Amino acid sequence: MFIFQEKSALKEYLSPFISANKSIGFVPTMGAIHEGHLSLMKNSIAENDLTVVSIFVNPNQFNNQEDLKKYPRTLEKDTNLIASLSEDIIIFAPSVEEIYGNNSTAQSFDYDGLESHMEGANRPGHFDGVGTILTILFELIRPTKSYFGEKDFQQLQIVKKLVKKHNIPVKIIGCPIFRHENGLAMSSRNERLSEKGKQEATFIYEVLQQAKSNFTKLSISELINWVSTKFEEKPHIHLEYFEIADEDTLATATTKEENKKYRGFIVAHIENVRLIDNIALY
Ligand code: AMP
Questions:
Q1: Ligand 1 in reach of 43 Cβ (< 6 A)
Q2: Phi, psi of 187 (to 5 degrees)
């Protein structure tokens, strides 16, 4: 297993693969690796000659400094987990200075409005930070395909838009949400929950599933009210938003239209941990 911390060393290592037209699969992560991340890596290994995983907690995509400070950093555990999947994966784990020097300010990106909803609206600057780091990593690694989880569905759509608008020659592959047996979506942030909190968090996916089965029976506004009422019954869980949006444009849906695909998007807080999930409503 190779672990690189410097851009120049990684570039030098990848250069012969790129010259030989080998396919490179790339999985960007912020570490605290779990099975959700590993499922992306498995897809990449199956479809490419070489897989590169980055582990980098990108400061400029955090709008909340406390969240950035508390984000789990577990590099040794992460590399062991990745090695248990494959010894051939290349890990890139740079420092903030290595990526940004002494200026980690994010660039501005225009994703044709995809950024103005949900996470974009609730976490100002977040998708500018995502665009900034991905542009740097795509340029450095030059992947053939790059793998993103549907867990961050808005991010997935935004990354597709980013590469299209900037003509970055990489195919973006969306991968299904990997869940614990009890339905809770795997997340690095789950590590900050107590056992009780993890148990309570299963409520999020339960409500999403019920929302899906109610989708044909209720109007959009009725469904949204139904979800907020369900959360009012849970004093330890704070619902930040539940929104139904068109899967392609991410525009908030107010009525249901034929031939459109809708998703329910949710963010809830338990024990001061922000948890995100979504479900296809078709
Ligand atoms: P993160 O380290 O949280 O930035 O996530 C890195 C990548 O893994 C992103 O593309 C996420 O959407 C994806 N990911 C995180 N959790 C899951 C999950 N439970 N299932 C599938 N993909 C995930």
A1: no
A2: -155, 145
* Cα separations in angstroms, 89 against 44, 58, 168, 197, 226: 10, 21, 23, 33, 45
Using the structure block, give the residue that is written with the tokens 């539940």.
Answer: 242
Given this model, what pLDDT does residue 21 score?
Answer: 96
Q: Check if 193 has its Cβ closer than 6 Å to any atom of ligand 1.
A: no
How high is the pLDDT of residue 1? 87
SS3 149: strand
Active site residue 37: yes
Q: What is the pLDDT of residue 124?
A: 93
Report the residue among 29, 61, 204 best suited for mutation to probe ligand 1: largest number of ligand atoms under 8 A from its CB.
29
d(C-alpha 230, C-alpha 209), whole Å: 13
162 contacts 135 by C-beta, under 8 angstroms: yes
For residue 234, the SS3 value is: coil
List, for the chain, all residue ranges whose pLDDT scores fall below the cut of 50.
none
**Which residues are bridge partners to 245 per DSSP?**
252, 263
What is the DSSP secondary structure assignment for residue 241, as one 8-state letter? Answer: E
The CA distance from 231 to 225, in Å, is 10
From residue 162, alpha-carbon distances to 41, 117, 124 in Å are 22, 16, 18
Tell me how far the alpha carbon of residue 258 lies from the centroid of ligand 1, in angstroms: 31
The residues with which 280 forms a beta bridge, in sequence order, are 263
Nearest atom within ligand 1 for CA of residue 151 = 12
